[in-house]
Specification:
Blueprint (H helix, E strand, L loop, with lengths): L10 E2 L8 E6 L5 E5 L2 E6 L2 E4 L8 E7 L5 E6 L6 E5 L4 E4 L11
Length: 106
């Protein structure tokens, strides 16, 4: 059963309960992007793939996923900061804002 058909995990987002599984986006293949606890996760056929968090980062969450399974979201290097990330199915890359601008989410 795919996420599109309605599975018991992941669940619709509710960041007020941090130790659960939540999804924010679905692609045409039924993959879901979201988080499990404090880690960004992609679910494929009910199986979670942990998007490896950047070294030293506090937490991450995937907010978007395209039809080839690449994801974008937010990573928090510390508890009080965040920046966007892009995941290419292999590695997470932090997206830094251009000089003079500030980006909060992908």
């Amino acid at each position: 059963m795919s996420a599109r058909e309605g599975v018991d995990q992941p669940r619709p987002c509710n960041r007020a309960k941090p130790n659960r599984n939540w999804y924010y986006a679905l692609n045409e293949s039924g993959q879901a992007a979201g988080n499990s606890g404090n880690r960004a996760v992609i679910w494929t056929d009910r199986v979670p793939t942990d998007i490896q968090i950047l070294a030293g980062a506090y937490d991450s969450v995937a907010f978007a996923i395209n039809d080839i399974g690449q994801a974008a979201g937010d990573v928090s290097p510390t508890e009080n900061s965040s920046s966007a990330f892009f995941w290419n199915n292999i590695t997470m890359k932090r997206i830094l804002p251009p000089a003079g601008e500030y980006i909060v989410e992908a």
